Structure formats: structure tokens, C-alpha cells
Protein 1
Amino acid sequence: METRQKITRAEGALLGLTGLFLCVLLGLFLHDRAAMRAPASAGTDRTAPIEEVRPDPSPLDLNAAGAEALTALPGIGETLARRIVDYREEHGPFGAVEDLTKVPGIGQGKLAALEGLVTVEETE
């Protein structure tokens, strides 16, 4: 009888711990679920003006831009920007945006990535 009573107490303790564990899991689940429903920007109504996000939306003139301005373009690093400036100084101003492919390191893919971001203004 004593052995049966010990087993019953052990079972009861195990059952109690299991119940406690399940309650903790349920609490964590409900906490995560409530966090997912909360808006990401709770309480903040800050918006950045367009000027801060994109300071100059106009295309960059290839005939007037320096190496530093050219590095702001996607895919154009310092070396490639220097090549563009060197090519322009050696061969004169670009006649069209497509002439950019004559610069070593610029192919059709890079030219396509720059579409709308660069322009060629007529030089006087």
C-alpha cells in the first residue's frame, strides 16, 4: 500500500509540473500572438520628407559630374567613376548616354541599371 501511495504522489507531482509547463507555454503563445497584432510603428507619426530620402531626383549629367558624384550611382565605385571622368577628358563630352558603354567596365547590364539616373546635357 505504501508503494502505491508513493507512486500516486509521484504521479501527482509530475501531473502538476506538466500542467504548470503547459500554462507557461500558453502564456508565451498568447504574448507572441499579441505582439504580432501590434502595429510596427505604434505611437510614431514621423515621416521623412522626400528631400531627405532622395535629395536630388533629377538625373546626373555625365558631362558635368565629377568622380565623387558618379560614385553615388548604383554599381559605380571609385575606380569606375575615375574611368568615366578620364574617358570624358580624353575623348570629349558624351554625345549620348549609350556612349557610356565605351568606358571599360561598363556593359549593357550596368547601362540598364543606370537608366533614368543619368543624362547627357548638350555642351555649349
Protein 2
Amino acid sequence: MDIVIGDVHPVDILVLRNDGSEATARMIAWLDLATNDFFYSLVLLPKGKGITQAHITRSFVDLVQAWGLPSCLYFDNGTEYEGCELIDGFRALQGLVEGFHAFMIGASEIDTALGIDKGTLTLRR
């Protein structure tokens, strides 16, 4: 739990809504870099809606209840974090909890840190 990376991904499994339209769930994923443990929340959204900061916050609370508070939390700079209320909340948490830090970085920087080669979609070790 020294470094945890959070990201949002579509899940490529089609689900039929009650109105007959097709949907794909979104996965809010958390990866512990030290252990490669993976925690996630799935959200099936109404038509035309996207993941909100409330969804991410709920998933983070679930993560903390299951694993505890990480020391460092990294997010990519995706549209889910626009408006900065979520990031402001994590910055406030930094001021309240000694040893907790949150960072917002580009997805490519996360890939580089993880050693992911986008050309082959493999891990470089």
C-alpha cells in the first residue's frame, strides 16, 4: 500500500438495459504496485452518462475499508477528474493524514512507471 494507482476503464462486455439499449460497465480500478493486488468497482451507467467524482470517491472509500489508506495515490489526468473537487478532497486529506500523498499524472507516465510497452501491450521488466 505504498503506491496505489487509480484509473477508470470501459469493460468490453455488452449488457442490455431495461429499455433494450446496450451498455458497457465502467471499472474504477486500483492497483497496488508493491503486490500487484487489484481492487475494482463496476458501475453500469444510465444511457448518456459517465463516471462522476462521486463514483470514484465511493470506490476509494471501499478500497480504504478493504485495504487501508495507501501512502501514495496516483491518478491519470482523465476527464473523470475535471473540476478538481475530488483532487481538492485528496489534497485536504493529505493535510489531515501524515504520510498520505495524492498525485495526478498523465496516463503515459503511469505506463512508463509500470513498464508497460504500448506497442506490444506487454510489461517490460
